[in-house]
Structures are given as structure tokens and as C-alpha cells.
């Protein structure tokens, strides 16, 4: 049977009533489509739900540390906030991006049945990310002058720099954690990650209170707690992998981890560039807004909007992980039509959720600013920006999904070029032009940058719509074979 005549759902994933519906597909396509849409939605939420929970828990580790630091004093709060957002934020973006190469490789290898190679890929990623972490250590060591160049005061730069030195262990936890997570995600073991992250978050709250407030260790207590929490996540995930062998995906340490590193480095760098360009794009908004005349009010208003956008982004990142796994798994298994169908289902689902969030923002724009500020001037500026926030929330519901499709299919390098063009050649200059030259202020800056997101989203929709999924399935098979698939049969 040719691939073009395959059922939309492959029979090894179906049982009982599902097989009967697939067999009736030719006589009742409408019923079959509705049933299949429901089953694909179920698979999507089984991945996205735990992934969203995991992301929120890990995002909350740094946020809670900042909250406890704020109970000590303003300088301590500033030190933790700056280190988390600038120094650790830089490292997080690079590590997450480079680790995302495994979403392509592990997902496609799992779909192709090459389970042993998942462990090999994870080890190769460890080698690359631990090396990258060593390269990033000077950023932590020399963070005070870096922060001074970024416009921070000497007092805040020195305090944040000292905290950054204590947070170097977290950098290496990132290097271990992201390959592990992609390894587990590819096998759909997302509940394991969710339980571990949730449990560590509970412990993090207790030990933050104990070390920071009760024992009065201050910033040292904050660093100790945050480092321990991240390494506890890594250790517990490793214990699970080593004990269960992850259904055969882990067969122990191997010298194969040091083979084909060049290809891994290329894909890892492409992944890092793609995600970092997205990760940093909206962060630049606040930096540019700070260059406006009398920037205090617009910066505060922008920060409130970015806070709300950041929490909504946790949902989008969950869908990003889910569709990356679905696409890579199905392409690796040669199920081109099911990979395409997964893209349709997740795109529709995330867009509906984004539209709902957009409506909530617009409906509450007269009220939500007062949850964050007592300043009437800041609240009024936030209300003005609420319309742009609403459109950003809508666009950011679909854009990460399309990026997840790109990662699952292995298009990182292509999307990196698209991001450079749309974000930094179109969106950023347009924002500067509107904000400064046309005196539209924060709304102009944000409006121009939304234009970049909109253009990127349109291009990714076009690319996804025109994709030859049969060809992508063939490329996935070639990729698995090229980067070690044959070794799995040795």
C-alpha cells in the first residue's frame, strides 16, 4: 500500500472502536474526521497538560525566589531579579535552544523504533551543553561590568554579580536538565516530569522560607535553595531513567556519544539561534522603552503587560512541546498524514485558547492594571497598551505552535533566518521608527514589533501549509539513519 492511501491514523496506535471507525472512513468521512479530531485532541492534551504544569512549576522557582528576596530588602530583590532576568535569562535561552535539537532527533528516533539511540542522543547533547556551560561561565564571573554597560547602577551590579557567582551551579543544571527533558518528552513521559517539578516546587517554598527568612541567610540562602531545587529536578529525573531504563531507551553510557558531534553542534546552534531570537525579542521591548523621554511610567506599564504575556506564554510553551513530540514521532514512524493532521488540530486548539485569552484581556483592561500598581498614571498607560497586549496574546498562541512544528520537523535553520528577517530587520526598526521618529512612544515601539511577529506567523503558516509531509517523513528516516540509527541494531 502506498503512503498516499494510508489511513489517517496508524493502526498500531488504535484499538477497539477506533479501528472500526478508521475502517469505515471511506463510507462516512465526516464521522471519521470528528472521531479522529477527538482522539488527536486527547493525545495533544495528554502531552500539553503535563508540559504546561512542568513549565509553570520551573518558571515559578525563580519567581518565588525573587518574592522571598523581596522580603529582605530592595537591594536583594533587585540583585535576584537582575540575575534571573539578564544573566540566568541569557543562559536559560541558550541552553533551552540548544537542548531543543533533541526534540527533532529523539522524537524521530522514537517514532522509527530506534529506542537505544535516544540515550545516545541525550549523552551527545550533554557533551555539547556542558561545554557550552563552561563557555558561559565568564558571563557569570564578569557580570558586574556587563550589567554596568547595560545601564545598571554600581550598587545593583555588584550585588547581582555576587549572586550570579553563587548561581553558577544552576548553569550546569540547565545543561543537564534540558536534554533529559527532551529525552523524556520524546517518549511521552511528561507526567514523570510534572510530578517531579511539582514536588520540587513544594520543597522549594519550604526551604526558601527556612534559609532566607527563618535562618536569615539572605542572598546566600536564596542561591543555595535555587541551586538545590534545579539539581534536585535533574537528579530525580536521572534516578527515574537509570532505574526504569526508560523502556529500553537508556542502555548505559556509551562511546557513541562522542560520534557525529559536528552534526549535533550544527543542529543545536540552529535551535539555539531560533529560540533565542524569539525568547529575547519581547524582552527588548522594555529595554527600548527605557530609552524614551521620561520612561518610568511606560516601562512600568510595559512590565505589567509583559508579566501577563509571560504567564500566557506558559500555555503556549506546553503546546509547543506537545506538537514537537507529535510531529517528530509521526514523521519518524513514516506517518506523514497523521503528522499533518496533528498540526491542524493543535493549531486550531491553540488559536481558540488564544482568542479566549484575548477576549479576557480586552474585557478586563479597565481593572487588571490595578492588580499590579497603585499609580493612576501607570494604570492609564497600561490600559492604552492593553489592545496591543490582546493582539500579542493571540499571535503568541499560534506562533510557538508553528515553531514547535519546525522543531519537530527539523527546520530550525530555516526558521532562524525567518526570525532574523521578521524580528530584527522588520519589526525592531519599525518599532523604533514608530516610537521615536513618529513620537508614538511605547505603543509605537510595541506596535512595530507586533508587525514583526505577525509577518513571521504568516510566513510560518505558508511554509507549513505548503509542506510536502511525505518528503519530510523520508527526510526523518534519513536523519535517523545518518545520525546513528544503524548503530542501534549493533
UniProtKB/TrEMBL annotation:
How does this chain sit within the bilayer? Multi-pass membrane protein
Any GO CC annotation of this UniProt entry: membrane
Q: Where in the cell is it found?
A: Membrane
A Gene Ontology molecular-function term? transmembrane transporter activity
Pfam families referenced in this protein's UniProt entry, alphabetically: MatE
Q: Which GO terms describe its biological process?
A: xenobiotic detoxification by transmembrane export across the plasma membrane
| Residue spans crossing the bilayer | 126-143, 163-180, 192-212, 218-243, 264-291, 341-365, 385-407, 414-436, 442-463
Q: Which domain of life is it from?
A: Eukaryota
Principal localisation? membrane
Compositional bias of type Basic and acidic residues: which residue ranges? 1-21
| Keywords for the protein's UniProt record, in alphabetical order | Membrane, Transmembrane, Transmembrane helix
The ranges of region (Disordered) come to 1-23
Q: Which family does it belong to?
A: Belongs to the multi antimicrobial extrusion (MATE) (TC 2.A.66.1) family.
- NCBIfam families attached to this UniProt entry: matE
Name it.
Protein DETOXIFICATION
Q: Which organism is this protein's natural source?
A: Nicotiana tabacum (Common tobacco)
Amino acid at each position: 500500500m502506498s503512503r498516499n492511501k494510508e489511513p489517517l491514523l496508524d493502526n498500531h496506535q488504535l484499538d477497539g472502536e477506533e479501528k472500526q471507525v478508521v475502517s469505515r472512513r471511506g463510507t462516512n468521512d465526516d464521522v471519521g474526521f470528528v472521531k479522529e479530531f477527538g482522539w488527536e485532541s486527547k493525545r495533544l492534551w495528554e502531552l500539553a497538560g503535563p508540559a504546561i504544569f512542568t513549565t509553570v512549576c520551573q518558571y515559578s522557582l525563580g519567581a518565588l525566589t525573587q518574592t522571598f528576596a523581596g522580603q529582605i530588602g530592595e537591594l536583594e530583590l533587585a540583585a535576584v531579579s537582575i540575575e534571573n532576568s539578564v544573566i540566568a535569562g541569557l543562559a536559560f535561552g541558550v541552553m533551552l535552544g540548544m537542548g531543543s535539537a533533541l526534540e527533532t532527533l529523539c522524537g524521530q528516533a522514537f517514532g522509527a523504533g530506534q529506542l537505544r539511540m535516544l540515550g545516545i542522543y541525550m549523552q551527545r547533547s550533554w557533551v555539547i551543553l556542558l561545554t557550552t556551560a563552561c563557555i558561559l561561565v565568564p558571563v557569570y564571573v564578569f557580570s558586574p561590568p556587563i550589567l554596568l554597560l547595560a545601564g545598571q547602577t554600581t550598587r545593583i551590579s555588584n550585588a547581582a554579580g555576587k549572586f550570579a557567582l553563587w548561581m553558577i551551579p544552576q548553569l550546569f543544571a540547565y545543561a543537564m536538565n534540558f536534554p533529559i527533558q527532551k529525552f523524556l518528552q520524546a517518549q511521552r513521559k511528561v507526567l514523570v516530569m510534572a510530578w517531579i517539578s511539582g514536588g520540587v516546587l513544594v520543597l522549594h517554598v519550604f526551604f526558601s522560607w527556612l534559609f532566607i527568612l527563618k535562618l536569615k541567610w539572605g542572598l546566600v540562602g536564596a542561591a543555595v535553595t535555587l541551586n538545590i531545587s534545579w539539581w534536585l529536578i535533574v537528579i530525580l529525573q536521572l534516578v527515574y531513567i537509570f532505574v526504569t531504563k526508560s523502556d529500553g531507551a537508556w542502555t548505559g553510557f556509551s562511546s557513541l556519544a562522542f560520534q557525529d558531534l559536528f552534526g549535533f553542534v550544527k543542529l543545536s546552534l540552529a535551535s539555539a539561534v531560533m529560540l533565542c531570537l524569539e525568547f529575547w525579542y519581547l524582552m527588548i521591548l522594555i529595554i527600548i522603552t527605557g530609552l524614551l523621554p521620561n520612561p518610568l511610567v511606560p516601562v512600568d506599564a510595559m512590565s505589567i503587560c509583559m508579566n501577563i504575556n509571560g504567564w500566557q506564554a506558559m500555555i503556549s510553551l506546553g503546546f509547543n512541546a506537545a506538537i514537537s513530540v507529535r510531529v517528530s514521532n509521526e514523521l519518524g514512524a513514516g506517518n506523514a498524514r497523521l503528522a499533518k493532521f496533528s498540526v491542524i488540530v493543535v493549531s486550531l486548539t491553540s488559536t481558540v485558547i488564544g482568542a479566549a485569552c484575548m477576549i479576557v484581556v480586552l474585557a478586563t483592561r479597565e481593572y487588571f492594571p490595578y492588580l499590579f500598581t497603585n499609580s493612576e498614571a501607570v494604570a492609564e498607560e497600561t490600559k492604552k497598551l492593553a489592545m496591543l497586549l490582546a493582539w500579542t496574546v493571540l499571535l503568541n498562541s499560534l506562533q510557538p505552535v508553528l515553531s514547535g512544528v519546525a522543531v519537530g520537523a527539523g527546520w530550525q535553520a530555516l526558521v532562524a533566518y525567518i526570525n532574523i528577517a521578521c524580528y530584527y530587520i522588520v519589526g525592531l526598526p519599525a518599532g523604533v521608527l514608530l516610537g521615536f521618529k513618529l513620537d508614538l512612544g511605547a505603543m509605537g515601539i510595541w506596535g512595530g514589533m507586533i508587525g514583526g511577529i505577525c509577518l513571521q506567523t504568516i510566513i510560518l503558516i505558508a511554509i507549513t501549509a505548503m509542506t510536502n509531509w511525505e518528503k519530510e517523513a523520508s527526510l526523518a528516516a534519513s536523519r535517523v539513519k545518518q545520525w546513528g540509527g544503524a548503530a542501534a541494531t549493533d
